[in-house]
């Protein structure tokens, strides 16, 4: 291991800036056809090429997008494009390059010791600095200020360069500095970043000495913040060379991949049997919320909604499995309703949505998601009958609907053990036969039961049967009969379709 400046010179260590380093390593990954980032889904043809272009051009960049679009994750993964280690002058506060020291302490040390100047090696993770922009952030936090304690300890005048206490940016010299939520930074603080982005130097408290920095600046911002909490001042925005727009997943499949990757699904010794259609329903909730007239679209709907909802849904199933001493964790449609807290806290409602109430809006989103996913697997229950002379299409749901029309009622609960839950659903004629379309058979009791409940809920969402939720559970009954029979249980208006 090289430990002195002389040894480093003799080794032929290649000199270069951090942007040269990033460019070199990106080119190497492109040639090797290796992924630039890990765990970033849905950006391969949009965001990532733009980031690569910015790095190849040596640009600072602004990642602009709504909440939950992996902006911070991308910024943090930029460190993977750095060299594993770089040499710095030992004890340097600003990672002074051994060949080009910039701080007072480092230049003095090199002048005194020459080739015997000690050096140390800094890892890539230590070359990353991140700051959340808040209104209380000061110039001293980012750039630096005079340190009276240092001045007194070392008996220095306040005008002496050695009395400077460096802020986050110079301390991350030869690294990557990320400032999240840039519009929240006060305009006078944003002004302090001008020199860093343009002249690549800092000046503290009017010192004549300017310290050149070798850094990559990355900013993140939410478009909503431009009007609600602040703005990026025009001169600063002009100095950020690349503005890169992020986005939400374009397809349900991409969204499911992200949710599956980020969610805590397999958490205990009990296996989790998670049907694909339940994942699709959870993901569809977010997609529908991003188009809902009741949801504030300028705020966005984060991927955290689906992550929280899926985890809460599995937790409800896990709780049931523990209480009932069951071997597997098998989520049900009713578990999504119990996971509604993962939805209500993740969406900002417009005035009309506030009038409806977050619970009602969330239930409506779940219901619409059930309808849409159901049609991916089975025929639309509301499909029109064939006209006279055409082949009559058999209604696979007729036996189920007829059973309820005969006055039968089915009551189930998310607390019911599997044996009771399965037995109750098997009482409905034709239900198991329709559920076999999912590829299950009567021996797959756990997943078969979930599929049968899914069918019943979908028939309700298509206005074929009535459904009412109460603290005791869920009741399915005849739609027409429920109109003329006053309910004896708590009913949600949105869940009662007539």
Structure commentary:
By secondary structure, this protein is of the alpha/beta class. The chain folds into three domains: 5-245, P-loop containing nucleotide triphosphate hydrolases (Rossmann fold), CATH 3.40.50.300; 252-377, Helicase, Ruva Protein, domain 3 (Orthogonal Bundle), CATH 1.10.8; 398-495, no CATH class. 42% of the residues lie in helices and 12% in strands. The strands form five sheets. The protein has a five-stranded parallel sheet. A three-stranded antiparallel sheet has the order 12-14-13. Helix 2 (18-32) crosses helix 3 (47-57), helix 13 (252-262) packs across helix 14 and helix 14 crosses helix 19. It is elongated, with a radius of gyration of 31 Å. The model is unreliable at 488-498 (pLDDT under 50).
Gist of the model:
With 498 residues, the chain is of the alpha/beta class. The chain folds into three domains: 5-245, Rossmann fold, CATH 3.40.50.300; 252-377, Helicase, Ruva Protein, domain 3 (Orthogonal Bundle); 398-495, no CATH class. It is built from 24 helices and 14 strands.
What does the average pLDDT come to?
A: 89
User: What gap, in angstroms, lies between the N and C termini?
Assistant: 78 Å
Strand content: 5-15%
Biggest beta sheet summary? 5 strands, parallel
**Low-pLDDT regions:** 488-498
Number of helices: 24
Write down the CATH topology of the largest domain. Answer: Rossmann fold
Instruction: Using the alpha-carbon principal axes, give the shape.
Output: elongated
Number of domains: 3
Radius of gyration (CA) equals 31 Å
CATH secondary-structure class of the largest domain: Alpha Beta
The total count of strands amounts to 14
The amount of helix comes to: 40-55%
What is the CATH superfamily classification of the largest domain?
P-loop containing nucleotide triphosphate hydrolases
Strand line-up in the sheet with most strands: 4-7-10-1-11
Classify the oligomer.
single chain
Structural class: alpha/beta
* CATH architecture descriptor of the largest domain: 3-Layer(aba) Sandwich
